């Protein structure tokens, strides 16, 4: 072999399994780095300990526990965990279904929040919070960076929903969720300039810790749509009654 030629080493099985690994600084956390990558050609997300924590048994136990907590969760608005394995150069990783889209933070910065996104925040995000609380999941506060909207369809997904599962959550923990939601919605309303009196009141009350639980907040949000439904239903019934009366009396008139 010519001295200027380099012998090519074929990639290992692990290297063939994992390709196009890319760091996502926006979604990284205090102790974790987040990446997107292809596993056997399929896009996934990876969550792994930052390099300075990888060899510490306490932090290794922490990521093990988070995988155990997250693995059996199933909700349409929560990013699902599908595996836990070693990835070349990254070490042990929790593997999530890929969420290809943009965070709420990015959409606000780009002034690109649509009506569909807004409806998801008003309806789907509280449902995800309710599921988290029903499963007694301790987690970091909800923030615009951890609320993702999928590309094209615009479905809402939460990517940081629990690092511990407890026998019950304290009132302080559940109230923190409501306060976080209120602050997120206040920022959304302020930055988008939306005129929504009901959500303005709900967001302010939630941010001030004024709801007893997430169900009470959901009822306050649903009050708006319920009133709209009753108004529409009443108008429809009135129109239907008018048609029935017209047909009844017009048919009884002498010819």
Which keywords apply here?
alpha+beta, 5-stranded antiparallel sheet, globular, 7 helices, 3-stranded antiparallel sheet, single chain, 20% strand, 255 residues
Number of helical elements? 7
* Mean pLDDT metric: 86
Main β-sheet: number of strands, strand sense, barrel status?
5 strands, antiparallel
**What fraction, in percent, of the residue positions are helical?**
40-55%
Order of helices and strands: HEEEHEEEHHEEEEHHH
What is the total tally of β strands? Answer: 10
Amount of beta strand: 15-25%
What distance separates the N and C termini? 110 Å
Main structural class: alpha+beta
**Rg estimate, integer Å:** 25 Å
Strand order of the largest sheet: 1-2-3-5-4
Broad shape? globular
Low-confidence stretches: 225-232
């Amino acid at each position: 072999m010519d001295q200027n030629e380099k012998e090519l080493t074929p990639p290992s099985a692990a290297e063939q399994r994992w390709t196009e690994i890319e760091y996502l600084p926006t979604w990284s956390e205090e102790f974790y780095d987040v990446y997107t990558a292809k596993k056997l050609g399929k896009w996934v997300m990876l969550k792994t300990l930052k390099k300075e924590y990888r060899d510490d048994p306490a932090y290794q136990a922490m990521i093990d526990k988070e995988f155990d907590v997250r693995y059996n969760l199933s909700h349409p608005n929560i990013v699902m965990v599908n595996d836990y394995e070693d990835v070349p150069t990254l070490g042990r990783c929790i593997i999530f279904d890929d969420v290809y889209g943009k965070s709420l933070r990015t959409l606000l910065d780009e002034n690109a929040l649509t009506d569909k996104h807004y409806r998801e925040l008003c309806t789907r995000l509280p449902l995800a919070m309710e599921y988290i609380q029903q499963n007694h999941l301790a987690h970091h506060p909800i923030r615009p960076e951890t609320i993702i909207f999928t590309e094209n369809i615009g479905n809402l997904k939460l990517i940081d929903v629990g690092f511990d599962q407890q026998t019950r959550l304290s009132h302080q923990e559940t109230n923190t969720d409501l306060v976080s939601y209120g602050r997120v919605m206040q920022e959304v309303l302020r930055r988008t300039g939306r005129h929504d009196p009901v959500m303005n009141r709900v967001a302010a009350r939630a941010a001030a810790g004024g709801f007893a639980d997430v169900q009470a907040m959901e009822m306050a949000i649903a009050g708006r749509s319920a009133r709209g439904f009753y108004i529409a239903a009443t108008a429809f019934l009135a129109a239907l009654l008018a048609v029935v009366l017209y047909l009844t009396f017009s048919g009884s008139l002498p010819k």
